[in-house]
Structure prediction request, 474 residues.
Amino acid sequence: MYQVPTGFPKDFLWGGAVAANQCEGAYEYEGKGTSVADINEFRADLPLEKRSNAEISTTYIEEALHSKTGIFPKRWGINFKETYPADLKLLGEMGLKLFRTSIDWSRIFPNGDELEPNEAGLLFYDKLIDEMIANGMEPMITLSHYEMPLNLTLNYQGWYSREVVDFFVRYCKVIFDRYQGKVKYWIVINQINLIGHESFNHLGIAEDQVENLQQAKYQGVHHMMVATALATEYAHQVDENYQVGMMLCGGPEYAATCNPEDVLATLKINQMQYFFADVLLRGYYPGYAFRYFEERGIKLEFAEEDETILKNTADYLSFSYYYTQICDAKHDEPYRNKSLPANPWGWTIDPLGLRTLLNSFYDRYQCPIYITENGIGCYDQLEEDGSVHDDYRIDYYRAHIEQMKEAIKDGVDLRGYCAWGPIDIISCSSSEMSKRYGFIYVDQDDYGKGSQKRFLKDSYAWMKQVIASNGEEL
Prediction:
């Protein structure tokens, strides 16, 4: 008879996650090309909620490329390209068993359309992956995490172009071949459903290059899903031990009221977040998506072989979880739930939402699940003695880990958890350093100034204890 689990499985993978574009730095070093992230500007003059590069024009791109005064923090990151041995040692000593990072596509194929990869870029990742393993961490590698070569935007219209499918699959094949026997866990595309909030970073489609941006985005995502399926097929041919996952940015969205119209509106919004996983885990487009496109005049182009290609489905679901929102029938987009506390950037804190989402995903897909991002961005204070007292972060993680344990008791097959930004890195959405997530403090400000020394926050020792006790001591 089935036994209800009492806690985390013995082989649970406690981990941390970063992205190459937010930490590595070394802009245009050793043949690296310019990526879409390298033109993300930090704008201190804008309010917090508007410091985002969601949609970008070619005019902006040209201005950014030739700017003498703009601040582009992702070009220097936290100098992880040079400091990774010491940083990984600290993370290994904390007890991490899994380390998720991305390979910067523009470091391997600087323009994206070359026939041969940049060997210098590959040599760096050889050393990085070896260092993860040496420190007791299983590598989890993301192949596309907002690092598309900018050339593919300027000369191919990003993922809107079918040609980019072939360029991306060529890149994936190089990586899958190179790291056979070293890397087991893969994520092809980071947060594939973020076609709104991070649309340019995600898809590389400049808003003035297309007539209908919304249609172009969904066409781009279609190409992205075809490329993902092709990459997954190849990975399984290369190594039967490869586990290839797909990744969502997780909700869930709640109905603002019990009015049936609000409930239905919320269902529809949640469906269009599930849509991407439905395709990549089930292998076909669901009917509700076709209706969504028809009602909005979105006409997608399918190649003759696409339906067959999409049958190459992922091995697991992964997702990020930061906050929940609410919906109603009067608004087209979800909005903030003001009944919940939030961080300074308005991201609500909802641990129960994580349990709800885990159950919803597992009920729907019945496959292994990994939480590949979760954390809280806050302003941290470095004291004169080098300490950082971040009880608010400990409280956040404690509450979320408790709900993960409850979801496991509910029967969810949760196999791993990656805290986002276990070391402070540049913010994805706002390109600032002061929005900190880490257990390790990096002495660097929004303008790249500081000693770059690393300091352990109070949350470091706390999380080390959590991992050592396999989630029992919170």
